[in-house]
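Help!! Second protein's tokens look totally different from the first
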Amino acid sequence: MTVESTAAARKPRRASKRTSAAKKPQSADPQLVQLLTPEGERVEHPDYSIDLSAEELRGLYRDMVLTRRFDAEATALQRQGELGLWASLLGQEAAQIGSGRALRDDDYVFPTYREHGVAWCRGVDPTNLLGMFRGVNHGGWDPNSNNFHLYTIVIGSQTLHATGYAMGVAKDGADSAVIAYFGDGASSQGDVAESFTFSAVYNAPVVFFCQNNQWAISEPTERQTRVPLYQRAQGFGFPGVRVDGNDVLACLAVTRSALERARRGEGPTLVEAFTYRMGAHTTSDDPTKYRADEERAAWEAKDPILRLRTYLEKSGHADEAFFTALDEESETLGKRVREAVRAMPDPEPMALFEHAYADGNSLVDEERAQFAAYQASFADSAEEGK
């Protein structure tokens, strides 16, 4: 199947070596940093600019398309009973790919449970993400191999982890930065407010990247705050900025700027990526119960993949052969994911107790013995029944 939104085929023009921003006005929303409109038109911003080659633009498009394809396959696998749960990122590809590609290799990422696009940018094998949701591993990757921490299910706690790590980076004298991802719902958690306080007081090199997808499960953003989320940073003494979360170019430019600021020793920044969760909160959720179809339709018109495709076609930076080859690549990815998930072996039940503590724990030892006895009781029952 074709995974990205389709657009009418246009005759490509010859691609220039570098792209240039057209002399067009900024978005009508003065709060929103935007470099690519929903209609696929390049616009300028006085504080943020970006100059990417045609190859780099195609790379961002490829990242978003393959991430969406992987996400769609994971949703289908859950519906087929192959995964216990899945948290879709549908609609949030630009926020994740734009911010993910702004990172340097030595930067460190603290995700939630929905940052599949960022994981893609960090080189984490997609099948490792699915192993956790299938229940065969606790994450499946070494966080230090990709500087990408394990997924965090507890809402908001990763912002504290990121702040502490960033404080350590500063004490070590390194020039790397840390980024913490969280949602609009998590912004109401005390952990997030505490992380803002500590990061400001200790001038920690951390970027707080809030993906405001408008809904904290069934709770709309307006039920959580009386001001735009990015303005909360003012009360803690560091800058906040709202970016069009469906604009991959703006997300890249804003995040890159915030990371560079952190590396210069200027402290934290809050980035609010104003985007939309097109699907359900997770596969156990039914968004039709609490939001209108018209709302989703309005946001679908701002689709992050469609707008970049439109720009690529208008500017002549990609031709039909590129899009066709990418469709084929996405199908290959989908097949690889399906086969890998179905081939995952069930874990040894006693492995549940491994790696709970680095040096062991008497309570875990007791629980392990009790569970082993419980497992053995099934074998005893089978013998008695013969």
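Here's the second one for comparison:
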Amino acid sequence: MSETTDVCPCGSGKKYADCCEAIIKGTIKAPTAEALMRARYTAYVKHEIDFIINSCEKGEKIAEIDRKATEDWSKNSTWHGLKILRTEPGKEPDTEIVEFEATYTQKGIRDVHHEIGGFKKINGEWFYSEGLIRPTTVVREGRKVGRNEPCPCGSGKKYKNCCGKNA
């Protein structure tokens, strides 16, 4: 199945070509903050790092996004789905709140990234502005790795000398 006929990862039920692709490729602007959030999630799934970075608000008081960390999270995770919990107007004009959960697995651990995202409309275009992470309980997929077993990250080291060093 080609990428243009695949169902969009954002959970809309639409084909990727009819949903987030045009926003990610820059053909159209996200019509709502929720549409931008869905496109950003899809960009993580499809490793469209430039879109993730370029869809963030920029300015003197805005923290720089860490490209390498973003790319690592995108590429080293198996993405399971996006759930939009709520959307509502922000406190300021041209702002919106999108609360969401993005479920993924990394290094054998399934996790839920639960965030209350702030979005701003600047010159007619939506941008991700800030986020408040809501902690969740991490649930391990599969059995627990023993201290003396090979590390699941693929380094070739024992788990206790690699990713389990500070666990």
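Reply: Different proteins will give different token patterns, so don't panic. The CA atoms of residues 7 and 13 lie 6 Å apart.
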